[in-house]
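Researcher: Following up on the earlier apo prediction. This time include the ligand. It's pyridoxal-5'-phosphate, with the SMILES given after the sequence.
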Amino acid sequence: MDHDVKPATLAVTGGRPDRVQGAPVNPPLVLASTYVSQGVPGPGEPLYTRIDAPTWHPFEQVLGDLESSRHPALVTGSGMAAIAAAFSLVPAGGRLVVPRHAYQVTLGYARDLAERCGVEVVVVDIDDTDAVLEAAQGASMLWVESPTNPMLEVADLPALIEGAHAAGALVGVDNTFATPLVQRPLTLGADVVVHSVTKYLAGHSDVVLGAVLADDDELHARLHAYRTTHGAIAGPFEVWLALRGVRTLALRVERSQANAAELARRLQQHPAVAQVRHPSLPDDPGHELAARTMDGFGSIIGLRPRGGVAAADALVDALRLWVPATSLGGVESSLERRRRFATESLTVPADLLRLSVGIEDVEDLWADLAVALDLALDVALDASR
Ligand SMILES: Cc1ncc(COP(=O)(O)O)c(C=O)c1O
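Model: Understood. Below is the ligand-bound prediction.
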């Protein structure tokens, strides 16, 4: 692996076919479930696509390099398939420590493990380092999301990894929100990293994919075996598209982060706004930590308008450019009120809007928001009369 060039360069240059006369610039898309094979297959020889597929390799190599992993990433059929692989490292009856505001389906899966496998699930506020490390004593795994979805709490990753290891726990990190351009947990000693590749890595809201990474040989082998046995594998075409997405990751992340920081600053000053969360804001509870431990602040904003749920829904309805949709990390700006889902954690405020800021012109994004904010303010004022 070539760690000499910068991540933005790696994202463009990694996983290309060898430079020989007439070679294609991009790796080919191989659509085959099986490969010509007789006798005992040699190491690395393609056999059957549930086990391994040539089209996965360039993407897995590039993501492994971006995360500074000793091994290539293992691409999976979705982010949840990657999380299921990571959670398979928690033994029946073991303790799993999870953030209160992790992705709701991750939390649902942890509850499922508690019911089916007797896993003791302990829920913590991930920005309360002392409480997390106390819960990690005797745990099999500490699961970290940072920033959290959708509350944008920032975890002290270096301290959590060191403390959890001292307590004998593995540390798994969902790095979806940050991307490897902003945070590389394996370099801090994390044992497992997962991505919903669906989001920033693929970046165009056109595929559902995941990936799981581990530095340790044994953990990597166990995750690989889990993927093969449980079969939640990725289709080659989706992975080919994801690699195309990764080529522009650095530009997209740079632009969407700049847009998010500017919009968060303007939102904070708007009379229709009750609360904004974005780690770039100097008075955000996660700002100091994010500035110290991350290479950026991400592109997700938490927004609570004045006037509660009615104002929040009115705001979403009034937008013409922002897309009302679940998911995040696409080139297009989108938003949703998370508590519209009955399954969302009840400690997430009912009126919280999660904004995924895209790469459009920031003035157009603001103009659309400003009109909708004025309308939301009317709803709030009407309700208070
Ligand atoms: C932080 C985070 N992790 C994991 C997932 C799950 O990913 P997927 O939808 O690709 O299964 C999501 C999906 O929204 C997410 O936001």
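Model: The chain has twelve helices and twelve strands.
Researcher: Noted. I'll compare it with the apo version next.
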